Amino acid sequence: MSNARTIVESTLVPHKAFEAAKKAVEQCYVYAEHAVEPICIAVIGESRTGKTRVQEECIADHPPIRDASGLKSPILRVKTPSKPTVKGLAEMMLRALQDPGFSKGTENAMTARVLTLLVKCQTRMVIFDEFQHFYDKGTHKVMFHVADWLKVLADDAKVALVVSGLPTCNAVLEQN
């Protein structure tokens, strides 16, 4: 029998902002298939407003599957670490794409494997949750090297890019 906390945590209240965000992310996913340029959107809001739930709902609509030809991962979701680096993000993406050597290689070699696996896994959209970590609150600086890498990755992979996080994400978006 479920306790009250479990019921509250699992209850979805699809308010207008949630529905609008889910529709925008889904539209981004659909348009990505034939887009010449990568489609990028930001889902920004305060804590506990449903940003992660929007991502989960979209992934549930397009789940990863494994068949005879391998893993198909239409949407790749990565939670940004608190101090992101290119190598760290590439490692997290490789792990999510089930690369057995996810932690091995140089930054460039790992990036090349990410690009190869995004194509092989037929990934159409990449979601970066906790995107506010691209902004260092202590120094008030954007991690430009990592943000530029992400922009180039989306361009090269021809995938839709969704960034999601707290309002401090705006500092990254405004400066880059």
Please report the total strand number as a whole number: 8
Question: What is the percent of helical residues?
Answer: 40-55%
Rg over C-alpha atoms, rounded to the nearest angstrom: 16 Å
Number of helices: 7
- The SSE order reads HHEHEEEHHEEEHEH
Task: List the uncertain runs.
Answer: none
Give an account of the 3D structure:
By secondary structure, the chain is of the alpha/beta class. The protein has helices at 4-10, 16-32, 51-61, 86-96, 107-120, 144-157, 169-175; strands at 40-44, 65-67, 70-72, 75-79, 125-129, 135-136, 141-142, 160-165. 46% of the residues lie in helices and 18% in strands. The longest helix is centred in the first third of the chain and has 17 residues, at 16-32. Helix 2 packs across helix 3 and helix 4 (86-96) runs parallel beside helix 5. The mean pLDDT is 91. Strand 6 and strand 7 form a beta hairpin. It has seven helices and eight strands; from the N terminus they run ααβαβββααβββαβα. The chain starts with a helix and ends with a helix. The strands form three sheets. It has a four-stranded parallel beta sheet with strand order 1-8-5-4, sandwiched between helices. It has a two-stranded antiparallel sheet with strand order 2-3. The protein is globular.
